[in-house]
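Retro notes, structure queue

What went well: the backlog is down to a handful. What didn't: a couple of records were mislabeled last round, so from now on we paste the full input next to the output in the thread. Example, using 6-phosphogluconate dehydrogenase NADP-binding domain-containing protein from Rotaria socialis:
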Amino acid sequence: IKLHQAAMKISILGTGLMGAALTEGLINASHDVIVYNRTIAKTEPLSALGAKVAATPVEAITASDATIIMLSDGVALREMLLNDVTRVLLKGKKILNGSTTTYSEIVEIACVVAEYGGDLAEMTIMVSPDPLRNKQGRFMIGCKTIDESYWTEILLSIGESVNRLGEVGEASKAEAPMIFASIFIPVTVAYAAAVAAKMNMPQELSERYINMAIPTAEYVLPNMLARDYSKCMATVDSYASAVTTAIKTAESVGVPTKILKDIQDLFRSAAERGFSQKDGSSIFEVLFEPNANDK
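Corresponding output:
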């Protein structure tokens, strides 16, 4: 597939960890990037790199050839796109959702966007923030056949592979099991690390055995052992949103949700302790030093 030769005007709505990394990747690929975030301070580092800052989502969308939305969940996506001000300006606009949604949420929102003359596609990002910055992105997309080349060209400018799974909703379906897996990994590691620490197991032994038992522990265990959560792959708030989406998905297919609701309480407890914007591995603190308010 031939890549775009000319820079495009692309807006990013939502500049959290993944939105910021996506913005950096697009700037590095020579696109003109417009960013919007409800907390404007989060756009300042991106402005320093050359991004233009929009005051509102409408300003960003209207000024762009393409818009990519990177919010927490389907509720936030609906509120941003389908409010009375924004939805009437969607005609002719191409929008790509990178927010975590359920299948039914994204299909329903796409239908409403279409009623107002816009086109909503979806993507699942298969890598962490750093590869996005360095043109190593991998993506799954759900979109109309006619829009496949459009979004593929844009995403290949910052990545290595784009796989269209079908119409809108199919990427959310494929992402669903990954959401469940990603939620349980830090919880499993945190429980193992908290128990080992409380039993006064030598750290080098607990690290060895936990890594042996849980192959992906290497991504979260070092933070827990150091009790330093500043190096962030996914925030506590983003995990909490992912759990909410997982609960909705589980309910829609008749899978029990009690354990998910307990996990949700765990991440909420971490947020209440001030870790909301720290790495999700900080749930270790709730388990290692529980207090009376922890459920």
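Agreed that this is the format going forward. Reviewer comment attached to the example: The CA atoms of residues 131 and 137 lie 6 Å apart.
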